[in-house]
User: Which sequence fits this backbone?
């Protein structure tokens, strides 16, 4: 039995985000970039504990953003900031300096963080009906 009537959440059009919600997502994006920068420094400093600490911090931020905003976009915003910061840190400069070495730990940090971003974005809470609008579990 479909619940796509006029009162259903699926039948309602999407509204633009409020100013507070947009500010929260921008803040999460910047926090993701800072977490990516800090993780890039920590993961190489104390291997393997630093790698685990950097990945745990990233996963906590991704999941926390999703739960704080009660949406998947709350997990995607810090993940996008993290990925952009980490990818920008992998590029070499004309002077030949770069932050990541060619070791296995840096590849685990890059690929593991991206995998965590995808996992946390898909596990995050999606749009759910209000508590009293449906009888779930019967």
Assistant:
């Amino acid at each position: 039995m479909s619940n796509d009537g006029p009162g259903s959440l699926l039948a309602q059009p999407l509204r633009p985000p409020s100013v507070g919600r947009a500010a929260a997502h921008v803040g999460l994006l910047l926090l993701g970039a800072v977490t990516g920068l800090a993780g890039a420094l920590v993961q190489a400093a104390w291997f393997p504990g630093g790698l685990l600490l950097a990945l745990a911090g990233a996963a906590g931020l991704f999941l926390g953003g999703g739960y704080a905003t009660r949406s998947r976009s709350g997990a995607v915003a810090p993940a996008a900031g993290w990925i952009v910061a980490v990818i920008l840190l992998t590029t070499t400069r004309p002077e030949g300096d770069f932050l990541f070495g060619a070791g296995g730990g840096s590849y685990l940090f890059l690929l593991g963080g991206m995998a965590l971003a995808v996992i946390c974005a898909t596990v995050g809470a999606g749009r759910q009906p209000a508590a009293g609008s449906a009888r779930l579990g019967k």
Remarks:
- The mean pLDDT is 80.
- Residues 9 and 128 are 8 Å apart (CA to CA).
- The first helix runs from residue 19 to 45.
- Residues 19-123 form one domain.
